[in-house]
Protein backbone atom coordinates (compact mmCIF):
# COMPACT_ATOMS: atom_id res chain seq x y z
CA UNK A 1 0.00 0.00 0.00
CA UNK A 2 1.19 3.49 -0.83
CA UNK A 3 1.35 6.25 1.76
CA UNK A 4 -1.18 9.11 1.57
CA UNK A 5 1.67 11.46 0.63
CA UNK A 6 2.70 9.23 -2.28
CA UNK A 7 -0.91 8.93 -3.44
CA UNK A 8 -1.26 12.73 -3.39
CA UNK A 9 2.07 13.18 -5.22
CA UNK A 10 1.07 10.81 -8.04
CA UNK A 11 -2.35 12.45 -8.34
CA UNK A 12 -0.62 15.83 -8.69
CA UNK A 13 1.70 14.42 -11.39
CA UNK A 14 -1.30 13.13 -13.33
CA UNK A 15 -3.10 16.47 -12.99
CA UNK A 16 -0.04 18.24 -14.39
CA UNK A 17 0.25 15.68 -17.22
CA UNK A 18 -3.41 16.32 -18.03
CA UNK A 19 -2.81 20.08 -18.08
CA UNK A 20 0.29 19.86 -20.27
CA UNK A 21 -0.77 16.81 -22.36
CA UNK A 22 2.33 14.92 -21.28
CA UNK A 23 3.04 11.24 -20.62
CA UNK A 24 4.69 10.11 -17.37
CA UNK A 25 6.53 6.95 -16.38
CA UNK A 26 4.46 3.96 -15.31
CA UNK A 27 3.46 4.09 -11.66
CA UNK A 28 4.16 0.36 -11.35
CA UNK A 29 7.72 0.90 -12.59
CA UNK A 30 8.35 3.28 -9.70
CA UNK A 31 6.10 1.67 -7.10
CA UNK A 32 5.81 -2.06 -7.88
CA UNK A 33 4.04 -2.58 -4.56
CA UNK A 34 1.09 -0.38 -5.63
CA UNK A 35 -2.29 -2.13 -5.48
CA UNK A 36 -5.65 -1.69 -7.20
CA UNK A 37 -6.87 -0.01 -4.01
CA UNK A 38 -3.99 2.46 -4.27
CA UNK A 39 -4.89 3.21 -7.88
CA UNK A 40 -8.50 4.04 -7.03
CA UNK A 41 -7.22 6.23 -4.18
CA UNK A 42 -4.99 8.10 -6.65
CA UNK A 43 -7.90 8.51 -9.05
CA UNK A 44 -10.09 9.74 -6.18
CA UNK A 45 -7.62 12.43 -5.12
CA UNK A 46 -7.24 13.54 -8.75
CA UNK A 47 -11.04 13.62 -9.19
CA UNK A 48 -11.53 15.71 -6.06
CA UNK A 49 -8.94 18.26 -7.20
CA UNK A 50 -10.72 18.58 -10.55
CA UNK A 51 -14.09 19.12 -8.87
CA UNK A 52 -12.52 21.68 -6.52
CA UNK A 53 -11.23 23.49 -9.61
CA UNK A 54 -14.79 23.83 -10.92
CA UNK A 55 -15.28 20.84 -13.21
CA UNK A 56 -18.69 19.12 -13.01
CA UNK A 57 -18.99 15.35 -12.90
CA UNK A 58 -21.58 13.98 -15.35
CA UNK A 59 -21.00 10.24 -15.20
CA UNK A 60 -18.65 7.28 -15.22
CA UNK A 61 -16.84 5.22 -17.80
CA UNK A 62 -16.33 1.50 -17.60
CA UNK A 63 -13.30 0.09 -19.34
CA UNK A 64 -11.80 -3.24 -20.30
CA UNK A 65 -15.16 -5.02 -20.42
CA UNK A 66 -14.67 -6.94 -23.66
CA UNK A 67 -12.24 -9.66 -24.68
CA UNK A 68 -11.16 -7.36 -27.52
CA UNK A 69 -10.07 -4.65 -25.09
CA UNK A 70 -8.54 -7.04 -22.57
CA UNK A 71 -6.46 -8.61 -25.34
CA UNK A 72 -5.47 -5.18 -26.66
CA UNK A 73 -4.22 -4.02 -23.26
CA UNK A 74 -3.11 -7.22 -21.55
CA UNK A 75 -5.41 -6.35 -18.64
CA UNK A 76 -7.92 -8.92 -17.40
CA UNK A 77 -10.58 -7.14 -15.32
CA UNK A 78 -12.83 -4.10 -15.87
CA UNK A 79 -12.04 -0.70 -14.43
CA UNK A 80 -13.82 2.64 -14.15
CA UNK A 81 -13.18 6.35 -14.25
CA UNK A 82 -15.08 9.63 -14.06
CA UNK A 83 -16.35 11.93 -16.81
CA UNK A 84 -16.64 15.72 -16.60
CA UNK A 85 -18.97 18.05 -18.47
CA UNK A 86 -16.16 19.68 -20.47
CA UNK A 87 -15.29 16.33 -22.10
CA UNK A 88 -18.66 15.70 -23.79
CA UNK A 89 -19.08 16.35 -27.54
CA UNK A 90 -22.01 15.94 -29.92
CA UNK A 91 -21.86 14.10 -33.23
CA UNK A 92 -20.32 16.29 -35.91
CA UNK A 93 -17.88 17.92 -33.50
CA UNK A 94 -14.40 19.09 -34.37
CA UNK A 95 -12.14 17.88 -31.57
CA UNK A 96 -8.72 19.48 -30.97
CA UNK A 97 -5.94 16.89 -30.87
CA UNK A 98 -3.95 19.28 -28.68
CA UNK A 99 -6.36 18.61 -25.80
CA UNK A 100 -4.90 15.11 -25.37
CA UNK A 101 -1.58 13.36 -24.80
CA UNK A 102 -2.53 10.79 -27.45
CA UNK A 103 -5.79 9.82 -29.13
CA UNK A 104 -7.48 6.48 -29.67
CA UNK A 105 -11.17 5.84 -30.39
CA UNK A 106 -13.49 3.12 -29.06
CA UNK A 107 -17.04 2.13 -30.07
CA UNK A 108 -19.50 1.99 -27.17
CA UNK A 109 -23.03 2.48 -25.91
CA UNK A 110 -23.79 4.93 -23.13
CA UNK A 111 -26.68 4.67 -20.69
CA UNK A 112 -28.48 7.46 -18.85
CA UNK A 113 -29.99 6.43 -15.51
CA UNK A 114 -33.50 7.38 -14.42
CA UNK A 115 -33.15 5.83 -10.95
CA UNK A 116 -30.25 5.40 -8.53
CA UNK A 117 -28.51 2.03 -8.73
CA UNK A 118 -26.79 0.42 -5.78
CA UNK A 119 -24.96 -2.85 -5.03
CA UNK A 120 -23.87 -5.21 -3.67
CA UNK A 121 -26.24 -7.58 -5.50
CA UNK A 122 -27.18 -5.55 -8.58
CA UNK A 123 -28.13 -7.71 -11.58
CA UNK A 124 -28.48 -7.04 -15.30
CA UNK A 125 -32.25 -6.86 -14.80
CA UNK A 126 -31.80 -4.26 -12.05
CA UNK A 127 -29.57 -2.21 -14.32
CA UNK A 128 -32.02 -2.34 -17.23
CA UNK A 129 -34.84 -1.22 -14.93
CA UNK A 130 -32.77 1.80 -13.82
CA UNK A 131 -31.78 2.88 -17.35
CA UNK A 132 -33.78 5.67 -18.99
CA UNK A 133 -32.25 5.23 -22.45
CA UNK A 134 -29.23 4.04 -24.41
CA UNK A 135 -27.34 6.27 -26.83
CA UNK A 136 -24.43 5.43 -29.16
CA UNK A 137 -21.10 6.87 -28.11
CA UNK A 138 -17.48 7.07 -29.12
CA UNK A 139 -14.90 7.22 -26.37
CA UNK A 140 -11.69 9.16 -26.87
CA UNK A 141 -8.92 7.45 -24.93
CA UNK A 142 -6.18 9.67 -23.53
CA UNK A 143 -3.31 8.00 -21.69
CA UNK A 144 -1.04 10.11 -19.49
CA UNK A 145 1.01 7.04 -18.51
CA UNK A 146 3.37 5.26 -20.91
CA UNK A 147 1.50 2.42 -22.61
CA UNK A 148 4.25 -0.19 -22.80
CA UNK A 149 4.13 -2.55 -19.82
CA UNK A 150 1.27 -0.82 -18.00
CA UNK A 151 -1.01 -2.76 -15.68
CA UNK A 152 -4.50 -2.14 -14.39
CA UNK A 153 -2.95 -0.16 -11.51
CA UNK A 154 -1.51 2.33 -13.99
CA UNK A 155 -4.72 2.51 -16.00
CA UNK A 156 -7.05 3.06 -13.05
CA UNK A 157 -4.77 5.73 -11.58
CA UNK A 158 -4.98 7.56 -14.91
CA UNK A 159 -8.79 7.81 -14.72
CA UNK A 160 -9.10 4.62 -16.77
CA UNK A 161 -7.47 6.46 -19.72
CA UNK A 162 -10.64 8.48 -20.32
CA UNK A 163 -10.28 11.58 -22.48
CA UNK A 164 -13.69 12.49 -23.92
CA UNK A 165 -16.86 11.08 -25.42
CA UNK A 166 -18.91 11.88 -28.51
CA UNK A 167 -22.64 11.17 -28.18
CA UNK A 168 -25.01 10.24 -31.00
CA UNK A 169 -28.52 11.53 -31.62
CA UNK A 170 -30.62 8.33 -31.34
CA UNK A 171 -32.03 7.41 -27.93
CA UNK A 172 -33.56 3.98 -27.31
CA UNK A 173 -35.21 2.59 -24.19
CA UNK A 174 -33.92 -0.85 -23.24
CA UNK A 175 -37.30 -2.39 -24.12
CA UNK A 176 -37.28 -0.86 -27.63
CA UNK A 177 -34.27 -2.71 -29.03
CA UNK A 178 -32.19 -5.80 -28.30
CA UNK A 179 -29.09 -3.96 -27.16
CA UNK A 180 -26.89 -7.04 -27.55
CA UNK A 181 -27.14 -6.80 -31.33
CA UNK A 182 -26.36 -3.13 -31.84
CA UNK A 183 -23.49 -3.11 -34.37
CA UNK A 184 -20.53 -0.79 -34.65
CA UNK A 185 -18.68 -0.22 -37.93
CA UNK A 186 -15.84 2.23 -37.30
CA UNK A 187 -14.22 4.08 -40.22
CA UNK A 188 -11.30 6.48 -40.47
CA UNK A 189 -11.08 8.69 -43.55
CA UNK A 190 -13.57 6.49 -45.39
CA UNK A 191 -11.84 3.17 -44.64
CA UNK A 192 -13.44 0.61 -42.31
CA UNK A 193 -10.98 -0.13 -39.50
CA UNK A 194 -12.93 -1.95 -36.76
CA UNK A 195 -16.25 -3.76 -36.43
CA UNK A 196 -18.07 -5.27 -33.48
CA UNK A 197 -21.39 -5.95 -31.81
CA UNK A 198 -22.50 -4.78 -28.36
CA UNK A 199 -22.84 -8.33 -27.02
CA UNK A 200 -19.04 -8.35 -26.97
CA UNK A 201 -19.28 -6.31 -23.76
CA UNK A 202 -19.76 -8.95 -21.06
CA UNK A 203 -22.51 -10.64 -23.12
CA UNK A 204 -24.79 -7.58 -22.80
CA UNK A 205 -23.65 -3.93 -22.75
CA UNK A 206 -25.70 -3.14 -19.64
CA UNK A 207 -23.97 -5.89 -17.65
CA UNK A 208 -21.16 -3.42 -17.06
CA UNK A 209 -23.60 -1.01 -15.42
CA UNK A 210 -24.53 -3.70 -12.88
CA UNK A 211 -20.82 -4.48 -12.35
CA UNK A 212 -20.15 -0.80 -11.69
CA UNK A 213 -22.98 -0.51 -9.16
CA UNK A 214 -21.58 -3.49 -7.28
CA UNK A 215 -18.03 -2.12 -7.45
CA UNK A 216 -19.25 1.25 -6.19
CA UNK A 217 -20.84 -0.46 -3.20
CA UNK A 218 -17.38 -1.68 -2.20
CA UNK A 219 -16.30 1.97 -2.16
CA UNK A 220 -19.35 3.11 -0.16
CA UNK A 221 -21.14 4.83 -3.04
CA UNK A 222 -23.95 4.35 -5.56
CA UNK A 223 -24.82 5.48 -9.08
CA UNK A 224 -27.26 8.38 -9.17
CA UNK A 225 -30.20 9.27 -11.42
CA UNK A 226 -29.12 11.38 -14.37
CA UNK A 227 -25.61 9.96 -14.56
CA UNK A 228 -24.24 8.90 -17.93
CA UNK A 229 -22.54 5.51 -17.89
CA UNK A 230 -20.17 4.79 -20.76
CA UNK A 231 -20.44 1.04 -20.79
CA UNK A 232 -17.30 -0.30 -22.48
CA UNK A 233 -15.96 -0.87 -25.97
CA UNK A 234 -16.93 -3.65 -28.34
CA UNK A 235 -14.06 -2.92 -30.73
CA UNK A 236 -10.33 -2.57 -30.33
CA UNK A 237 -9.07 1.01 -29.96
CA UNK A 238 -8.25 2.86 -33.18
CA UNK A 239 -5.44 5.41 -33.28
CA UNK A 240 -6.28 8.79 -34.81
CA UNK A 241 -4.24 11.85 -35.72
CA UNK A 242 -4.87 15.47 -36.60
CA UNK A 243 -6.95 15.72 -39.77
CA UNK A 244 -8.61 12.32 -39.41
CA UNK A 245 -12.36 12.08 -40.04
CA UNK A 246 -14.11 9.39 -38.00
CA UNK A 247 -17.49 7.81 -38.70
CA UNK A 248 -19.19 4.99 -36.81
CA UNK A 249 -22.36 3.29 -38.06
CA UNK A 250 -24.53 1.79 -35.31
CA UNK A 251 -27.22 0.42 -37.63
CA UNK A 252 -30.63 1.07 -36.05
CA UNK A 253 -29.04 3.53 -33.60
CA UNK A 254 -27.71 5.84 -36.29
CA UNK A 255 -24.23 7.20 -36.91
CA UNK A 256 -21.65 9.36 -35.16
CA UNK A 257 -19.15 11.55 -36.96
CA UNK A 258 -16.31 13.70 -35.70
CA UNK A 259 -13.10 15.21 -36.99
CA UNK A 260 -9.82 15.73 -35.20
CA UNK A 261 -8.21 19.11 -35.80
From TrEMBL:
Enzyme Commission number(s) of this protein: 4.2.1.132
Top EC category: lyase
A GO-annotated cellular component: cytoplasm
Gene3D superfamilies, sorted: Fumarylacetoacetase-like, C-terminal domain (3.90.850.10)
Alphabetical UniProt keywords: Lyase
Domain Fumarylacetoacetase-like C-terminal: 76-260
Keyword Nucleus found: no
InterPro entries (alphabetical): Fumarylacetoacetase-like_C, Fumarylacetoacetase_C_sf, Hydratase-Decarb/MhpD_sf
Gene Ontology MF term list: 2-hydroxyhexa-2,4-dienoate hydratase activity; 2-oxopent-4-enoate hydratase activity
Name of the protein: 2-hydroxyhexa-2,4-dienoate hydratase
Gene source species: Microbacterium oxydans
Encoding gene (name): tesE
Amino acid sequence: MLSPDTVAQIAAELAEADRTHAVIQRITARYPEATVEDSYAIQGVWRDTQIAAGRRLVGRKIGLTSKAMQQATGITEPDYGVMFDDTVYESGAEIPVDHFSNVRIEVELAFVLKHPLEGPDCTLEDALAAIDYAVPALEVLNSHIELEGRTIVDTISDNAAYGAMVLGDVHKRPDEIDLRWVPGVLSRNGEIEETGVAAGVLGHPATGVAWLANKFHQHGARLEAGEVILAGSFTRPMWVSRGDAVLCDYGPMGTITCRFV
